[in-house]
TrEMBL record:
Signal peptide: 1-17
Listed name of the protein: Uncharacterized protein
The UniProt record lists the keyword Glycoprotein: yes
Keyword line: Disulfide bond, Glycoprotein, Signal
């Protein structure tokens, strides 16, 4: 057994050595590298000389729709998990301050640690105070395919009723924010579907255009929308809108085809707190049965989620469970709409619901252990009242429309 292991280790080393011979590039201490093609191999080698500083930081960025995998060979005194003065830090999110990093130390000369990025950026830190320490990192770039991609990756525990979401439970939620009063507030929601596009409703685009004169930013990775981004989750970020495309069939009176796509001015950085939602590709010809439980989310309204403990000042992303009902009047004869109704809470005389400023946010089904985006909050009949319910765009009927707008080359992960 030991012998086999040794041979394997030897082969590993040999591959590493061959790769080293072929090496095209390596990154210096405190270096940045932007990969241009996906089949490149890059090395981080530490120490590079006796003069190498005791702290090095490396940023690696690969092309959009690829990810980076790292094999880390190291010889560092120090014992996990604290590692004290000697360690390798790896941020799978590409965090520029190495927040939320994995930490490695000890002896891994033959059996490398393997770790991959979430999106197309990864950062590394090496801290050492000994000249006998060494670290070698081999980086490879892989294109996302339908076999290795992912969507809706953070799953929280399911709970009944309305409540705060967990931080970054819904990685695909985007908020359209504007400066109102003293805080930035979310005026509409949206759902990230690819690194460049956000799905929302058409009437939100009308509001962004006519009421807010495009003076709106896209906030992602958020939990508490009233906190400044640098005091919210480590994934909080802002993007500008580059363009918005409303469905040509949108009718304001009937709310028919209340769907739109927003393109971000630059590619969004995907990480553990920001990524694409799974779209209902497996459900294109499916009618969600009455009685199916779904989860609506939103920063929007005070009545949302009917939770008694909702902190109305802090605007934590809310979630509420709604029950699909195809017999409700606005959905009776319209398979492109999905009606859903919350439970009525007798104590506070409110019904779980999505309301005004939740427009554009997602209604998720929990299928095969993931959140799948089934609906877009479009309109409602009243809000939180006894007779109220929420009317959603049924996303499965618009997948072809989405593809026609974003083009065939835009990558969507289908799970
Ligand atoms: C390196 O740092 C560790 C932890 O602070 C310390 O115990 C060790 O003595 C240091 N080694 C050298 C050579 O300075
Ligand atoms: C949300 O952010 C606001 C503004 O920074 C802060 O006053 C409030 O306490 C925060 N709420 C929570 C639950 O963290
Ligand atoms: C409000 O949003 C803008 C982006 O539109 C951002 O630059 C600013 O820091 C935000 N302010 C607060 C208090 O969050
Ligand atoms: C669906 O709505 C109809 C009409 O309001 C109602 O009679 C029925 O009980 C509802 N079904 C469920 C499962 O909630
Ligand atoms: C839906 O269609 C049925 C059968 O044609 C009809 O009786 C009903 O009134 C229609 N409902 C709505 C809200 O138009």
């Amino acid at each position: 057994m030991t012998e086999i292991k040794l041979i394997i280790a030897f082969i590993f080393q040999l591959t590493a050595a061959i790769n080293l011979l072929r090496k095209s590039e390596n990154i210096n201490c405190n270096g940045e590298k932007r990969f241009s093609s996906f089949d490149q191999v890059i090395y981080i080698y530490y120490p590079q000389s006796e003069l190498t500083p005791t702290k090095c930081f490396y940023l690696v960025q690969s092309p959009v729709n690829t990810y980076i995998s790292a094999k880390i060979y190291h010889n560092l005194n120090g014992i996990e998990p604290n590692c004290r003065g000697q360690k390798v830090l790896v941020s799978r999110d590409g965090d520029s301050e190495l927040k939320g990093s994995s930490v490695f130390c000890g002896l891994r000369k033959n059996r490398p640690m393997e770790i991959s990025s979430i999106g197309n950026e990864m950062t590394f830190g090496i801290i050492s105070n000994s000249s006998t320490s060494s670290v070698q990192i081999i980086l490879r770039i892989t294109k996302f395919t339908q076999n290795n991609c992912d969507c809706s990756w953070n799953i929280g525990k399911k709970i009944v009723g309305g409540s705060n979401t967990l931080p970054n439970e819904f990685i695909a939620h985007a908020a359209f924010v504007t400066h109102l009063n003293e805080f930035n507030q979310s005026i509409c929601g949206g759902t990230i579907i690819s690194q460049n596009y956000i799905l929302t409703c058409a009437h939100c685009i009308l509001a962004i255009k006519n009421v807010f004169k495009w003076n709106v930013m896209i906030a992602v990775g958020r939990h508490n929308i009233s906190a400044p981004a640098n005091r919210d989750t480590i994934y909080a970020d802002y993007y500008k809108i580059s363009s918005a495309i409303m469905h040509k069939g949108y009718r304001r009176k009937t709310n028919d085809n209340d769907i739109a796509l927003v393109r971000t001015a630059k590619y969004m950085k995907f990480n553990r707190g920001c990524g694409a939602a799974c779209l209902p590709f497996a459900y294109e010809n499916f009618i969600v049965p009455t009685g199916t439980i779904m989860t609506a989310i939103g920063f929007g309204s005070t009545q949302f989620a009917m939770s008694a403990n909702i902190d109305r000042q802090s605007w934590i992303l809310q979630k509420v469970q709604l029950t699909v009902n195809n017999s409700l009047i606005h959905c009776q004869n319209d398979t492109r709409k999905l009606c859903a109704i919350g439970d009525f809470n007798d104590k506070i005389k409110l019904r779980g619901d999505s309301c005004q400023r939740d427009s554009g946010s997602g209604l998720y089904g929990y299928m095969r252990n993931r959140y799948v985006l089934f609906g877009i909050t479009s309109s409602g009949y009243a809000c939180g009242e006894k007779k109220s319910y929420s009317i959603n765009v049924y996303v499965a009927k618009y997948l072809a429309w989405i593809r026609s707008i974003i083009g065939s080359s835009e990558f969507l992960c289908i799970k």
